[in-house]
Amino acid sequence: MILILLPIFGHAWATTNLSKIGSPVVSIYPTSGPPGTKITITITNIPDISKESYPYADLYLYLPFSRSFGTTIQSQCDGEDCFPIYTYGDALNHDFANRTITLTTFSTNNPSLVYLNGFENSVCDVIVNNKTVERYSTLCNTKDQPTGTYEIKLTWGLENDAEQSYTVKTVQFTVTPGSQLPPPQAADNGNSIITAYQNGQISEQQFETELKALGWNYEQIRQALAVIGKLPHQMNASAPSEMQQIQQGVEKAAEQSTQQSTKQNMSMTDQYHTQPVQNSDVKTDTSTSQSNSSWNAMVILSSIGGAVAIAGGIFTLKHTRKITN
Prior knowledge:
Blueprint (H helix, E strand, L loop, with lengths): L1 H13 L10 E5 L2 E2 L4 E7 L12 E7 L17 E6 L1 H5 L6 E6 L9 E3 L2 E3 L4 E3 L2 E4 L13 E11 L2 E15 L15 H8 L5 H10 L4 H10 L11 H36 L6 H44 L1
Helix pairs in contact: 3-4, 6-7
């Protein structure tokens, strides 16, 4: 009996009907443009496949653009460029959120590559919901996409059998002739923007706006901030407070110096008015003025020394905190 049942189950798995799983809604914008056009593909109404039986199906996006140059990335889609954008595991985790896919067609006018965290990033990279799933650094700005109409397919495929697939949606994009533009400047790749922000030449808002204009996504901008040490947890927020304490200490010391000097002068003046005036008082007054000036100098020096001691103490405390951390 066992030998008879095994082929039956195997036959059932091999004939899973992918056409009955359901079809999401797919839209593309724009539908045409010259080489270097940014394309946005939106997928909505993704069906729940968590109740489907084995073998499980995944939803793949097929892109035709690199095949014009006889090059395809490594994938399980019979040599075609394809990416899983929704899987059985996503369904189990109740991840039915809309998928937004962005990419840019190949063009020699595309910006230069950006090296970040050991990867070559380009505007042609396929990004799904702000996450890079495939990079096209080799072709992005070295080839011009040939003119013509390209079909982008959305296909169900079995996890254990790449040959078993069913296309549920097809959208088209037409590449139109493009005008020859001068090569982009090196600053367009984002490196100069990162350097300018690191040196304090531009604001954080301008930094993010200019990188987004070059096609950078949220994760790439965050990685750039991490590389230059500009994430909130990497920056020392206590420095302004410590500088304020130093300034307050100097001001307080100067104020105490002024008060002590004023009191000393008033005391000397009272003594001068209560004593009889004699010829010898001219010398006494001169001696008193010299003593008074010496006293004021000593007070000022001690005040400045106190301020320096306060600054030194704060510096030592900051240094100790860094070592402790």
